[in-house]
Amino acid sequence: MIRSTRKITTWGAVITMAMAALATAGELRPLDLPSTRGTYTQEQRAPDSAATVYDQFRERIGRLNDQEKQEVLEAFKKEQETAESRKDWKAAAHYQTLIEIIVPP
């Protein structure tokens, strides 16, 4: 029972992190032409949120044992195949990145 609960909790955490990267898409803003701006000012940019999500995933996947990593890997490969069959290339690329974190090329 404890192992089953742990497996469900692990899967829940991994899937939540994987989907968080898709949910953190950047805000779309209208294009501001240089000729309409007054003076040039350099904007301070926040770190790439997608990179942060992948870094967090890398940390969490490092805590799993080999069997759990293999289960997550198989699940992500199936999700990638599903995304490719739907021609959802962004999701397929996301799962490919997650797979490469688990098993570096």
How many structural domains in the coordinates?
1
Give the class from helix and strand content and strand pairing: mainly alpha
Strand content: under 5%
Uncertain runs: none
Number of helices: 4
Oligomer: single chain
Q: What is the element string, with H for helices and E for strands?
A: HHHH
Describe this structure as you would to a colleague.
It is a single chain. The chain has 105 residues and is mainly alpha-helical. The protein is built from 4 helices and no strands. The two termini are 36 Å apart. The relative contact order is 0.14.
Summarize this structure briefly.
It contains four helices and no strands. It has 105 residues and is mainly alpha-helical.
Write the layout of secondary structure elements.
Layout: H1 2-23, H2 49-62, H3 66-85, H4 89-102
Helix pairs in contact: 1-2, 2-4, 3-4
Question: What descriptors fit this protein?
Answer:
single chain; 105 residues; mainly alpha; 4 helices; 67% helix
